[in-house]
Amino acid sequence: MGMLLVSMTREYTFQRLRGCRWASLLSPWLLCLLVSGASVASGLPDTVDRVRPSIVAVGTYQPSGSPRQQFRGTGFVVGNGHMVVTNHHVLPEKLDEQKNEQLAVFSGRGRKAKFHAARILARDPVHDLALLYISVPLPTLDLAETTRVREGTEIAFTGFPIGMALGLYPVTHRGIVSAISPMAPPQLGSRVLTAKMIRAMRDPYDVMQLDATAYPGNSGSPVFDQQTGRVVGVINSVLVKGNKEAALQKPSGITYAIPVRFVHELIKQAGQ
Q: I need a surface site. Which of 4, 62, 84, 153 has the fewest CB within 10 A?
């Protein structure tokens, strides 16, 4: 069906071009370039339509609370539909069992968010990732292969930058992978280094730097290829920025993402 739509788009564009008086002056290769550009331009909206149903909110639910739900971050569904990926720092340190507080995933759109009780399948605090389980399956996203993403790759990410204050309305930002660099900070003086930074320097790993701005509610959002929709990384600002930019007096607005290979490893760790 997707190929048919692309073919129809190209044919329509070609017919429009043939009707123009100046079209006969264009070389065949330039006509093909214009037609190809029209089909690529329509790719992201289609990709967002496919991705959006798999985006969920992660937080807590308390039956007697006011409000009952507390938003903590974004997540996305993978695998068999029962697994949700998010950032480890999104998880609450402790649940209030006396008030029946539960770890929760919220799906749907608008003000009719559906509550799903969740439990933790696996944690990876080193790469700030967590894998949750929900009993009712939801639409899933495909994970890209573990090969390194190239700088310049066009990406997008979808999440809830302002939380659930107005309901579940996923927001998409787009950009490129502007750089791939080690998470560990540069060599700094001992008075600047923290214990967390020292651990990161001992075992550094590459993270993606994006030229699109993410906000606190985007933590855990999937970073995906604009054309295929396959997840190439997970938005993270807390862990990465705390290491790479700890020495800056005015931290930047740069957005970082954890590569998808660590998500693959987390799923294996969970035995899924």
A: 4
* Nearest alpha carbon to residue 116 among 130, 126, 106, 129: 106
CA–CA separation, 245 and 237 (whole Å): 10
Interatomic CA distance for residues 264 and 131, integer angstroms: 11
Distance (Å, rounded) from C-alpha 247 to C-alpha 250? 9
- Reported for 94-101, long-range contacts at CB under 8 A and 24+ positions apart, including other chains, are 95/60, 96/62, 99/62, 99/64, 99/65, 100/62, 100/63, 100/64, 101/60, 101/61, 101/62, 101/65
The Cα 189–Cα 203 span in angstroms is 19
What angle is formed at CA 223 by the lines to CA 200 and CA 170, rounded to 5 degrees?
A: 125
Average pLDDT, stretch 121-150? 94
User: What single-letter amino acid sits at 8?
Assistant: M
Which has the closest alpha carbon to 106: 78, 72, 80? Answer: 72
Residue 196: predicted pLDDT = 52
Tokens in use for 166?
């107005």
Residue 89 DSSP SS3: helix
All domains of the chain, ordered by start, with CATH? 2-41 (no CATH), 53-134 (2.40.10.10), 154-269 (2.40.10.10)
Cα gap 57→70, rounded to integer Å: 10
Q: Is the pTM of this model over 0.85?
A: no
> In sequence order, what are the residues at sequence separation of 6 or more whose Cβ sits closer than 8 angstroms to the Cβ of residue 178?
151, 209, 210, 211
pLDDT band (50, 70, 90) for residue 178 = very high
Question: What is the 3-state secondary structure of 46-77?
Answer: HHHHHHHHHEEEEEEECCCCCCCEEEEEEEEE
